[in-house]
Design brief:
Helix content: under 10%
Number of strands: 11
Number of helices: 1
Structural class: mainly beta
Radius of gyration: 14 Å
Order of helices and strands: EEEEEEEEEHEE
Mean pLDDT: 95
Strand content: over 45%
Low-confidence stretches: none
Largest sheet: 7 strands, mixed
Amino acid sequence: QVQLVESGGGLVQAGGSLRLSCAASGRTFSIYAMGWFRQAPGKEREFVAACKWSAGSTYYADSVKGRFTISRDNAKNTVYLQMNSLKPEDTAVYHCAASDRAFSDRAFLVAYGTPSVYDYWGQGTQVTVSS
């Protein structure tokens, strides 16, 4: 089992920045990849960004590319999401997620944005961007 705890959400004006953190505990040695998803009221959960736990590969949704950066600190078992140039449409509950499945590189390239790929989820942190 892997436990995930997010922090860093809050209220920010449009154009501002926030950095979310996701601390992993438990069987962290089994993690293959980490992801960030978000869910706004009345909308489906949406992929934001992902990275492989042991390599530098990163993946982003088109809506956040160039504004958000996912990074990891394996020594701290923590993944970060740096969010710059925030927009009101970025308002949502942000969840981090972890997958401990043994993907091939090709399979993960296809699947990284799919919520069902991830086995463990944090409780979420609210991000509100005012206009």
